[in-house]
User: Fold this.
Amino acid sequence: MSEDFPGYRGHALKLLKSAGAEIGDMIRIKKGEEVWDGILIPRSESGDEYHVVIKMKSGYNVGISIDSKATLVKIGEGVKPKFTPPPLPEQNNSLPRVAIVSTGGTIASRVDYRTGGVRAALSASELYSVVPELSKIAVVETEILFSIFSENITAKHWTATAKAVAKHIENGVDGVVVAHGTDTLGYTAAALSFALQDLPVPLVMVASQRSADRPSSDAATNLLGAVKAAVFAPFAEVVIAMHESVSDTSIVFHRGTKARKCHTSRRDTFKSINASPLARWEDEKFRVLTKGYKKRDDSRKLILQPNFEDRVALIKAYPDIKPELIDWYVEEGCRGIILEGTGLGHVGDYLFSAIRNAVEKDVIVSMTSQCLWGRLNMNVYDQGRDLLALGVISLDDMLPETAYVKLRWVLGQTSDLEEAKNLLQENMVNEYSSRTLYDANII
Amino acid sequence: MSSRYSKIGLKAGLEIHQQLDTKEKLFCSCEPNLFKEEPEFTFIRKLRPAQSELGQIDSAAIFEFQKETEILYEANNDTACLVEMDEEPPHDLNREAVEISLLSSLMMKMKPVDEVHVMRKTVIDGSNTTGFQRTCVLALNGEIDIKGKKVAISQVSLEEDAARKTGKNGKLMHYRIDRLGIALIEVTTAPVIYTPEEAQETAAAIGRILRSTRRVRRGLGTIRQDVNISIRDGALIEIKGVQELELVSQVIEKEVQRQLSLLQIREELKKRGVNETDITDNFVDVTHVFKNTKCKVIANALKQKNPVLAVKLKGFDGLLKKELSVGMRLGAELAGMARFWGRVGGIFHTDEMPAYEVTKEEITKLGSLLKKNPLDAIVFVADSPENASDALKAVVERAKFALKGVPEETRAANDDGTTKYLRPRPGAARMYPETDVPPIQLTKSYIEELNGRLPELPEQLMKRLIEKYKVNQKITKQILDSEYLELFEAVASETKISPTIIAVALTETMKSLKREGKHVGLLSDEQIRGMFRLIDLGKTAKESIPEILGWLADNEDSTAKDALESLGLSMMSRKDLEKLVDEVIEKNSEFIELRGTGAFGPLMGIVMKKTRGRVKAKLVNEILKGKLETG
Assistant:
């Protein structure tokens, strides 16, 4: 596939090249008596080599099949369209400063006719084009750290992000916003919660489910809510700002260690689990929803600990899961295993000997539940007690994804087994809650 | 007549939108139906403008955004899923809809495209939850025959229907998403229509072709006509939503008149020596003039501490009340702009004064404050400072344009053929690819297969119907043009009733009931069939058809049986008929003695009148004759 003719290859590419036509030029395709005029448009990567896509005067795109008898000529030089963001609005330098760090995701994407799909963007001018109201709330400093879809985010990105955020905080910003894809946002939020403790200002992660190029996108309200939180929130914690419901009326802020993506497509996909969201922004008002939170304090010294251990596994238990899976991890030098068990914290007894083996090899084996909601209690049934006796550590009401991240972080701070176990069980950034409240609407 | 229109260079094009009768919606598996009950759930959204793939923000989108409306969407679970709520990406394009659209296209000799690309067309007024409408072009460049003249059909596209407005609550617009996503075929003609009559005939012909596929939805609101029209020196105006075929030519006539009048106003303003620089944004606060006013609207505004702002339109005296066309005045145009841009309820202007309890004295004071000359007009409005100012800004803009001629805009058709301002004309920047739906190839073999089973063209259909049912040509044409063709054929095959009687009932009778104000369009096929079934079973006579249809139209959700009972139209039993005939004979015994057999005719008349529709004439004949002969 040619860089100048994205999507075109083989027969189509040959025709275009011999006509000297480029994306954006006016071309004419003749097939017998049929004549098609239009602007040459890129083709999607999965398209075949026998069609050329043009944009007609009406604005509609259409695919024309080009067989051996079709001719293609260029009939006009095109104005190469480009995404021109409107000029920056007036900046009011007396406003609070907010750093917006972009790692990618739908929220940071724009429809680009050139690649026929999305490209990453989140410079200051593009931000203001999406949310012009920002200029009345804060002076925004943007940094495009990476442009990746979050399914490709790994711990090395967590580390880089933590370091970038720390730098901005050192520069004295009043709050930091991190734009991210929704898919693994929960993991990154947990990672940043552990890597950046004793925050002096809020760290608000933000994402969107609908692409920002469409008028109904949740990106604008989410971004607005995130920046408002960065400026006005009384708390200095890692939170995730997303829609509270399918309506555009409120943005809710979930604690980074207690939230997860629960729906493939709904804009209110993030839910706080075993916790209530930390705050809500609705009707132009900010309301904190929990009793305890870390207060904003400019003088507080940030503790940056951005390292994560690689050799940790998250294993979901299911009927007939092979114990060899655990053996393999242990043989490969795995230092920690988070089990996503069933119910109150159980796995089949056919895993016991593999677990015993792992614990004996000083692998930290700990338990969470694939029920997600509710807390573990491994004292209630024999199976649970047996697991405890094997040395499995119960992780109470921590989410499996958060537990995975925390164990990687803990083992990134110490190589001492006992110290690691203690850190794992210590409640550092509200990843555990001591009370499970009744919530009639789980989702 | 046509020379009048060619003299002014009338050019028009049509866009016909017809809902397709598919099992599911265009991009999901929901039922393509509407519901009248309270919604099962609602949600609130705000829409913002976005840039098209060509890097420009569409002006119509900015316009809607500036109106700052929030939208409340109403839904139920049968007709909306997460796709309609913009909470799930669209599913694949509905193939049944593609097929029906292609069959229609091929009947109009159009050339299908090789690969269908679905586009997003920005629509930010709230009628699409996503802020865009999904649409794709299926075929191009065909033609239809209108009385020997070939009318070029430029495009057939397939698109999703929009949500429907159900009300407004302050700034909150209410839309119902049951209609959102229903498959619509859009047939666009080239701008080659030169008279209003041609436009109406073309619209009728296209409607006929679509209906001949037998796969389009019928009923009120399932077909909508848009007209694009321009005259020399005027402007290209898009008129949306002409619901009734019969209004098409009227709408065009009135629009031609409106544009001609606007051009006349331009000339008049020139004569009066008005320049663009004479019309300025110089708004004067005239609140104190009205501090004791009896005008309710202004008094209310003042009570809420809102001002009255006024602006002078130099040279416009008498022009605001001038009728541009029957039922449309320039003053109303200004009011329309003020309502949209300023969110005000309306404006006042000196051409209509004194009125609304505004006194001559108040107007005189107003005039002197603004230094009004006799040839000037003043527009004033009472609302919040922001709204009033935005409203007058829009008024001034529109007034300035009156000096240039006719502004390009999108207008909405009213029920009486007049139109009103809807929004600014959208530009081509509105469309970009719908990347969530992969393109579909229309292979040669698929098109060949469709060509092999095209539905009958209306002309062939007409011939066949006349041959089969022996109904005369006039009535057959009416049935073909109505929405009752299928029902007609069904009833004709299910019952022994004469096809002509069925056809007349479904055409002339329906039309005359409509003229009387009966909402026969709301009758369901089942109700009408029920009536014919009862006639077939001998439970009532064909003479009762108009009464039954009229009663059904007045009584929602009723059955033909209910109508019979309520109207007392059940067939009379033979015994009761004989009794009645006996009574009539007795009452008129002297007359019978006098006339002898000559009494038969008048007596028939009396009995038929008394039994109105509850007896078969043949039976009365037999009984009466019998009794007269023996008695």
Summary: The mean pLDDT of chain A is 91. Residues 209 and 266 of chain A are 7 Å apart (CA to CA). The first helix of chain A runs from residue 10 to 19.
